[in-house]
DNA sequence: TCGGCAATCCGCCAAAAGGAGGAGGCGTTA
DNA sequence: TAACGCCTCCTCCTTTTGGCGGATTGCCGA
């Protein structure tokens, strides 16, 4: 016999979960082992129950599906997660698949397609709603323009220099040595960087620097 | 009744065409109106016969499927063309879909999937073999190869989770709140992360996380 | 010439991080 | 059973940060 596939349902609509559960339980090889009504609860249940697959809604209170997905994959990178949502947004799709969702299904799919998708996802395949396949292909045709130059220009040259050293992990004292400054001066620069970037810790500043290709300066 | 879907088969294997034709003709709503054994011939027939959909092989003499696809779309931009091939190469897939193929199917698919795909493609949907969906998604993820696992898998799940929060700029206290832990526990995790990654500050850890695509997790 | 700004420093303070040790629980594996 | 790794938490300690408040110099443009 085929091993039982243990399923976790995460969706904030109780009725939707109930219906889905009834539908899935009719299959001999499927078992719903848990439910959650928001992302945070979903992450916890995924951790506790170690399901074979998670059906995850996108739009939920407390923690949305995207973040929940990310959290689940941190502790269980091989977990099969199928997004099950109403969002036909190509951005949502791309984000989820990039993050590592095993599939992205719209709630308008029929039962057979869902069942088939569940089994395929557990086997390691990626599955998409037909409509979303088209969106993904469209994305392929228009890569992504992106080129945001930003509040980075509001930084003074010295501040940028300080930031680049900061992003390499130096302490204020080390940065001061490297730039031949007093530590107090470096602290002032760091303060200004934080204020201008609207953040509150040097760690965030470092991440910002890396994401803007500033760490190599 | 549903209108007849007029199909053109382009494949250099005669036997494959025969079999496919027999299969398709069994469907009341499908009709094979023409065949071609190479890309050039395929382009001509597509021009003459104005089919609703073309099933097009990739590897063919005289003119390959990619070029034939491009040619067909010049004169009939709205023509539905399904690539039907043995190539599981992600490059082939991406090229064909960029050029404008309506779908990319491997020859190992079953009949039902093919019939379903034909009807969906004519309706304007994009269709992919399940295996190729995974390849496309993988392409989406390429910016972050994730591949260089390295020291990263020396981290325990909890440490990875801690690291991902750290990379978002959270203080130990905030991470503790997020993970529902004591701050002291988070400090232990951070210490272990620093030791395992061979670095000496949380800033470096955050940078490492970002460069390894772990910050969104 | 004056105001603004970048850049350089001070001191002070509370909070956070880094580092070392120990310790109990829990599950897997030898 | 014992050993091991992981997770959890603790204390005690030093160093680093973040966040104030100043201050001085020099440059540039209105």
Automatic annotation (TrEMBL), chains A, B:
**Residues where 4-aspartylphosphate occurs?**
57
InterPro entries recorded for this chain? CheY-like_superfamily, NreC/VraR/RcsB-like_REC, Sig_transdc_resp-reg_C-effctor, Sig_transdc_resp-reg_receiver, Tscrpt_reg_LuxR_C, WalR-like
Q: Could you name the domain of life of the organism this protein comes from? A: Bacteria
Q: Which residues form the Response regulatory domain?
A: 6-122
Q: What are the residue boundaries of the HTH luxR-type domain, all occurrences included?
A: 148-213
Do you know which SUPFAM superfamilies this protein is assigned to? C-terminal effector domain of the bipartite response regulators, CheY-like
Q: Which PANTHER family match?
A: NITRATE_NITRITE RESPONSE REGULATOR PROTEIN NARP, TWO-COMPONENT RESPONSE REGULATOR
The name of this protein is: Response regulator transcription factor
């Amino acid at each position: 016999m085929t091993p039982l596939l243990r399923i976790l349902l995460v969706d904030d609509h109780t009725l939707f979960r109930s219906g889905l559960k009834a539908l899935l339980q009719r299959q001999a090889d499927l078992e719903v082992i848990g439910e959650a009504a928001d992302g945070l609860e979903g992450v916890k249940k995924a951790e506790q129950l170690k399901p074979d697959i998670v059906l995850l809604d996108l739009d939920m209170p407390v923690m949305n599906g995207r973040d929940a997905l990310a959290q689940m994959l941190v502790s269980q990178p091989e977990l099969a997660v199928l997004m099950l949502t109403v969002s036909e947004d190509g951005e949502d799709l791309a984000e989820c698949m990039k993050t590592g969702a095993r599939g992205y299904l719209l709630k308008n799919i029929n039962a057979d397609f869902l069942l088939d998708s569940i089994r395929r996802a557990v086997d390691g395949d990626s599955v998409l709603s037909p409509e979303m396949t088209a969106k993904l292909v469209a994305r392929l045709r228009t890569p992504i323009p992106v080129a945001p130059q930003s509040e980075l220009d509001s930084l003074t040259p010295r501040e940028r220099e300080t930031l680049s050293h900061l992003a390499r992990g130096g302490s204020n004292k080390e940065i001061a040595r490297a730039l031949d400054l007093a530590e107090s001066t470096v602290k002032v620069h760091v303060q200004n960087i934080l204020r201008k970037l609207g953040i509150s810790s040097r760690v965030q500043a470092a991440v910002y620097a890396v994401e803007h290709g500033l760490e190599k300066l």
